[in-house]
Specification:
7 strands, 58% helix, 3 domains, Glutaredoxin, five-stranded mixed β-sheet, 14 helices, alpha+beta, 351 residues
Amino acid sequence: MVCIAAFIILALIGGFVAVISIFKPTVGKNYLKLFKKAWGCLWKKVRLQKCETGFKDDVKNTILSRVIVKHPKWVKPLSVLIEIISVLIVVVAVWAVLTAIKSLLALWALGSCNVTKPSACTLSAEVCSIDESEPKNVFEATGRWFTEWGEIFEAIPEKFKTYNANEYDFNYVSVNTSTNADKPIAIDIFDPGCSVCMASYRNQKAAGFFDEYDVHLVPFAIQDADGNYKFKNSETVVRYMFAAEQIEAGLAIKILDHIFTDKNEDGVIYQTVLNSEDFTNTETIYLLEWWLKEAGIAEDGLKTIHEIAYYPETTTKMTENKELIEQTLKIKGIPTMIYDGSKHTGLWQSK
């Protein structure tokens, strides 16, 4: 292990030595000589051959030469310590390489280098991530590490898959109340509390996306593994959108327009208002019903919508969508859209 650890260390400091050797060429020559020895020993180890170069002893003797004179009794324990440190260096290096490979594969296959917390990956698309709970101990963390490999390998075939929006039986609300029989279907999964979803919605509206496709809007309140909602009032909004759509086609999209495009009397976008920690569920319901009143819904209609919002059937709709999103499609972040045979995750921008 000593020669492997030495090779890793020499490889890491190679860049610094290259700069120093510009001013002191002898340093570069000595480094190159050591590096060749380390590589030769490593290559023999890889081929399961005995290292005949004596490089391991050279390294240990160089480190221990000063100790032998002053503290001869320290030589044996220090020799053992060098072996242990070498093993740790090799283990850490192997882990780092595997983690780098896993991150690159995850970025390609899943769109994020962090499988369980996509928003933590700066290289991924701009999304509101569907995160898993943090491991509680080292055993859970180890199990999670291997589970992530499994998710990546499962996702690789999906990269070559053609997605047909007609195949997914989502519970949805329509953008347009007019007939869209001649338009291709597009599925648009969003969370009312997600700022990226809001930006995508605005972009789609401005670019005429909703006129080009028969868009099935799928309202979805993101939850973590413990059942906590990412945005505290999204569940209530989703329930009211499904309930309002049953009373009158087009009501749900009016609610969404208010959340994504309108501001309150203080000039604050309503999505920000709904996401604030001190904005209660009661206040959320009052706001939603106020918008429905503006849309012409009478008191009896509001009562019916409230009842439908908390029917078991509405809960079932939300559960079915959650299973399709997280289990069938294995989506890690939203907004996610399915149209033209492809799945698109992240901020939608016009071409």
